[in-house]
Design goal:
The chain is α/β, with parallel strands linked by helices. Helix content is 40%, strand content 14%. The chain contains 10 helices and 10 strands. It has an 8-stranded parallel barrel, surrounded by 5 helices. Strands 5-6 form a two-stranded antiparallel sheet. Helix 1 crosses helix 3 and helix 4 packs across helix 6. The radius of gyration is 18 Å and the shape is globular. The model has no long low-confidence stretch (mean pLDDT 96).
Length: 283
C-alpha cells in the first residue's frame, strides 16, 4: 500500500479539538509536507467548505483552509508528493472553473494534482452559495463527465443535461493527460459513482469492515484507487506492532493507499509519527 497524510492544521476533522495546530501557520504545514515528500508519501490533502453552519461544527469541524491557496504554497515546498483536494464539492463550482483553477495548479506543481470531489450534503452551504441542492447527485454526475471532457483540452466541448460548452479557450487546462479524479462520500452510491465515472474512491465516516463489504461486492477497474483511513488514530511510535496489524487489515480490506491520521501532541511528535509509519509500511 501507498501512504498518504490527511494534512494537519488545515482542518479539524469531525470536530476534533485542535491542540498545537490551533495557532500553527503555513510554515508548520510546509514542514509536514516537506517531511512526507522526502519520505515518499503518495499524497497529502486539503478539503473544502465555504461556511459551516454553527450547529454542524461539532460534527464536521469548523476549520477548512482553502485548498487552492494551501496546495499552491505546498507545491513550492515539495518535489514529488501529490496534492489531493479531499474533497471539492462539485455543486459549488462550474466544471470549467475547476479546470482553470486546478489546471493552473497542475502546471504550478508539475503535474501532481489529484482532483478529489464529492456531491456535498450541507444544504445550508448550498443555499449560501445559491447552488441547487435537491438534484445535486444528478448534477454531480454531469459535472464529472464535463470535467473529464475538459481537463485535458484547451478547447473543451461538452453537451450534457446541466452543463454545455464549446467554442471557447481554457488555457491552461490540466498538465496531466488524465488528471486522476477520486470520489468522496459515505454511501454505496459514492462507490458506484467512483467506479463508473472516476479513478478512485476516498470515502469518509464508514468503518473498514463496511468498506471491505462494499468493495467485495463490486468488480473494480484495473488501477482503481481505494483511499481509506484507519478506524482509529495511528500511533506507530508507541504502538508499532498494533500499527502493523492495522496496515495488514487495511490491505486485506482492499485499501491501496492509507490516509494516515495520527496521535500527536506537537509538530515534532507529528513528524516523528510520519517517520515511524514510513519505516513500518511493508512496501
Amino acid at each position: 500500500m501507498k501512504l498518504a497524510i490527511a494534512t494537519p492544521v488545515v482542518t479539524n476533522v469531525a470536530g476534533a479539538p485542535l491542540t498545537w495546530e490551533r495557532d500553527a501557520s503555513i510554515e508548520e504545514i510546509g514542514r509536514v509536507a516537506e517531511t512526507a515528500d522526502r519520505l515518499g508519501y503518495h499524497h497529502l490533502t486539503c478539503s473544502e467548505h465555504i461556511g459551516i453552519p454553527a450547529t454542524e461544527a461539532g460534527r464536521r469541524g469548523s476549520r477548512y483552509w482553502d485548498p487552492l491557496a494551501t496546495l499552491g504554497y505546498v507545491s513550492a515546498r515539495t518535489k514529488q508528493i501529490r496534492l489531493a483536494t479531499m474533497t471539492l464539492v462539485l455543486g459549488y463550482h462550474h466544471p470549467l472553473a475547476i479546470v482553470k483553477r486546478y489546471g493552473t495548479l497542475d502546471h504550478v506543481s508539475g503535474g501532481r494534482v489529484i482532483l478529489g470531489v464529492g456531491v456535498g450534503t450541507l444544504k445550508e452551504e448550498f443555499d449560501l452559495l445559491g447552488a441547487p441542492f435537491d438534484d445535486r447527485g444528478d448534477r454531480a454526475d454531469d459535472a464529472l463527465r464535463a470535467l473529464r471532457a475538459a481537463l485535458a483540452s484547451n478547447e473543451p466541448v461538452y453537451a450534457g443535461k446541466y452543463y454545455s460548452f464549446g467554442g471557447l479557450i481554457v488555457d491552461p487546462c490540466a498538465l496531466q493527460e488524465r488528471m486522476p479524479i477520486w470520489i468522496g462520500g459515505r454511501t454505496r452510491r459514492s462507490l458506484r459513482r467512483a467506479v463508473t465515472l472516476a479513478e478512485g474512491w476516498c470515502p469518509f465516516g464508514i468503518s473498514l469492515d463496511t468498506a471491505a463489504e462494499w468493495l467485495a461486492a463490486r468488480e473494480l477497474p484495473p488501477g482503481f484507487e481505494v483511499v481509506l483511513p484507519a478506524d482509529h488514530l495511528l500511533d506507530p511510535v508507541k504502538e508499532p506492532e498494533a500499527t502493523k496489524e492495522t496496515l495488514a487489515a487495511m490491505a486485506a480490506a482492499g485499501t491501496t493507499t492509507v490516509s494516515a491520521r495520527f496521535v500527536h501532541h506537537s509538530l515534532e511528535h507529528y513528524l516523528e509519527q510520519v517517520h515511524a509509519l514510513a519505516e513500518l509500511n511493508p512496501t
